[in-house]
Specification:
The complex is a heterodimer of chains A (108) and B (121). Chain A is built from no helices and eleven strands. In chain A, the strands form two sheets. In chain A, strands 2, 4, 5, 6, 9, 10 and 11 form a seven-stranded mixed beta sheet that branches. Chain B is mostly beta strands. In chain B, strand 7 and strand 8 form a beta hairpin. The chains are: A mainly beta (108), B mainly beta (121). Chains A and B meet through strand 4, strand 5 and strand 10 of A and strand 4, strand 5 and strand 10 of B.
Chain lengths: 108, 121
């Protein structure tokens, strides 16, 4: 099983700031099959990024993903108030599909 | 855009079982995997397994094998998740989610609204 680790656990920033979230895999994620989700209380997860760097439908271009093999990042270039939420990475290169523990992005 | 509508909240006793449904509309059903993901209170997301309706062979996470059964009914475009031997730790919101591309277990753009299952004596 591929174990995903996310850092930091909590990120405190202000609207307008740049956010960089990290996801590290215990082994290489084949073909960059790494996704990022945004999760808000009472809502279903929202797919932001798939294939490590492709934005899902309707996702603003302030969200970008990068990385390869075992190290991946999600960058939010300029935080909007609605961006403060939990963020999870997920690998789908190998079964079982696994998630990281999440990064909480909170308002400073 | 595919819509996934799940059945309502459930309360169960420890040791019992629960069945949650997920009805799809607005898109192709049989070739896209329907997956089940849960989130316990204060915890992260956990993939339980999924099924491609036209293939009908489920893919389960090891931690749920023996307790979970995932099925799909192509005639009604509905997937089901049955979880047995419930314990308090199974209290969670259960989501169904449709794969982004056909015939794959990957990532998920379309999600149900979630079903709260509470296990309590």
């Amino acid at each position: 099983e591929i174990v995903l680790t996310q850092s930091p656990g909590t990120l405190s920033l202000s609207p307008g700031d740049r956010a960089t979230l990290s996801c590290r895999a215990s082994q290489s994620v084949s073909s960059g099959y790494l996704a990022w989700y945004q999760k808000k209380p009472g809502q279903a997860p929202r797919l932001l990024i798939y294939g490590a760097s492709s934005r899902a439908s309707g996702v603003p271009d302030r969200f970008s993903g990068g990385g390869s093999r075992t190290d991946y990042t999600l960058t939010i270039s300029r935080l909007e108030p609605e961006d403060f939420a939990m963020y999870y990475c997920q690998q789908y290169g190998r079964s079982p599909l696994t998630f990281g523990p999440g990064t909480k992005l909170e308002i400073k | 855009q595919v819509q996934l509508v799940q059945s309502g909240a459930e309360v169960r006793r420890p040791g019992s079982s629960v069945k949650v449904s997920c009805e799809a509309s607005g898109g192709t059903f049989s070739s896209y995997a329907i997956n089940w993901v849960r989130q316990a209170p204060g915890q992260g997301l956990e993939w339980m397994g999924g099924i491609i309706p036209s293939v009908a062979v489920p893919n389960y996470a090891q931690s749920f094998k023996g307790r979970v059964t995932i099925t799909a009914d192509k005639s009604t475009n509905t997937a089901y998740m049955y979880l047995s031997s419930l314990r308090s730790e199974d209290t969670a919101v259960y989501y169904c989610a449709r794969d982004r591309i056909p015939y794959d277990y990957g990532c998920w753009e379309d999600w149900g609204q979630g079903t709260l299952v509470t296990v309590s004596s």
